[in-house]
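[Automated response] Your request has been received and processed.

Submitted sequence:
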Amino acid sequence: MSLESLFSLKGKTALVAGASRGIGLAIARELAAAGAHTVLASRSIDKLRAEAEALNAAGYSAEAAELDMASRASIQAVGEAWADKADILVNVAGRNVRKPMETYSREEYETILQTNIHSIFELTQLIGKGMRARGTGGKIINIGSLMSTHGVPYLSVYAISKAGLAGLTRVLAAEWGPSNIQVNCIAPGFIITDINRDMWQPPEMHAWLQATQSIPRAGTPEDIAGLAVFLAAPASNYVTGQCIASDGGWTTTARWPFEPAQ
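Generated structure:
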């Protein structure tokens, strides 16, 4: 297999749930550039249509689909519409509230879990069922978090959802592997997006990261998109059940002020 074919998505259809901005939009753009017909799905349908038009104008293939992860009817409609077409599903949609664990309201708790895990389960159930029925295999990519494997303060409910997503990834990889469906999870590190941009304004946040992380900077959505293309492409056909960190080394390395004598 040539290098080009290893990473080509020509002839494939990719559904990206949560594609209106940030990591989801960056992934959608790169999947389209790799040759997939890319369906950008989220609530922001006008923005998605504009993004799809821009991709089509650039010579790629894309369309928009309205998807509200808080609505079972919306999930059902999109899932049924693409169950017999989607070769690739990327679950990016998510939300977060950062606060001490004891101060979460029941509404906040239920909203985060509905968006980050319950809705993803339901959509994946529909798309995966279609993949298995067609018998042509598929790729499912879940966007987890550092909270899929580690703990950071003030993210308790978010951590429940992202750890659950990593667990779902492993179980589906085992369950659907015989159907040639690879299921993997990406655990992004500290990626600056519209959702967390304010949190990263204080210079001490960047100083902390620079002092501790081997790649001394925060990431961008584009830093995640290449890994998603790899996991969607034939190059990763023997990779499944993994939660792969793209985090500048935060989970595996540490820096200190010691320097050896010259």
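Summary generated for your ticket: The chain has one domain: 3-243. Residues 14 and 88 are 4 Å apart (CA to CA).
If you did not submit this request, please reply to this message.
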